[in-house]
Amino acid sequence: MGDFSSFTREVREALGKKLCAAFLSNGYKSAVYAPFAADAAKLALDMIPAGASVGVPGTVTARQLGLIEKLEAKKCVVYHHWDPSLAAEGRPERLMSENSADWFVTSSNAITYDGKMVNIDGTGNRVAAMAWGRGSVLYVVSVNKAMPDISSALARARDVSTPANALRVGSQPPCAKIGHCVDCKSPDRLCRAVLILERAAFGRDNHVIIVGEDLGY
């Protein structure tokens, strides 16, 4: 009968390589496929030089890869506003430091088969850096976030990513209770800033690592 998991890996690799080709054609400096999370972490660490400053926003993927600790071990200066030792009054400055670092490491709520990034933010810090951060940008995205087109990618961002992220941060918009977007007017609404990157933004190097294992939301 064969190894069913090997069939899944083969399909995911085919999709991952297709996505990499699409991102390269859309102006990304590099786009590589990593079958496993450990491979993705190694690729990221090889890419970011020792001693660089690195901004890490509220990305679950980067934390699942252990990138903050691994970058700090590499003597990088890592700015992240999830730092439990960070006082509330220090948060605005930390957000600015994330976005102005030498590198900005993030994921994406959804991507499309033709190499577009779709993201939704509440605060807007993450999408701001994606559009106009100062340094290089590295996206680490698992293939389960790949959707056929912009419409389905937006639906994924609203119906899959946002409810899970709302629960993660202790927010209670309606989607967190019923499991899908209802275009609410709740003060807890996280869908406030939408960014669609049709091509890599001018002015900085943009890199993508596509991962075969599921990561993030």
Summarize the structure.
The protein is α/β, with parallel strands linked by helices and 217 residues long.
Polypeptide structure, described:
The protein has a single domain (4-147, 192-211), classed as NagB/RpiA/CoA transferase-like (Rossmann fold, 3-Layer(aba) Sandwich), CATH 3.40.50.10420. The chain has eight helices and ten strands. α5 (91-99) runs parallel beside α6 (125-132). It has 217 residues and is an alpha/beta fold. The longest helix has 22 residues, at 4-25. A hairpin with a 4-residue loop joins β5 (110-112) and β6. The strands form two sheets. A six-stranded parallel beta sheet has the order 1-10-7-4-2-3, sandwiched between helices.
Q: Helices and strands in order, then pairings?
A:
Blueprint: H1 4-25, E1 30-34, H2 37-47, E2 53-55, H3 60-64, H4 67-73, E3 77-79, H5 91-99, E4 103-106, E5 110-112, E6 117-121, H6 125-132, E7 136-142, E8 146-147, H7 150-168, H8 174-178, E9 193-197, E10 206-211
Parallel strand pairs: 1-10, 2-3, 2-4, 4-7, 5-8, 7-10
Antiparallel strand pairs: 5-6, 6-9
Helix pairs in contact: 5-6
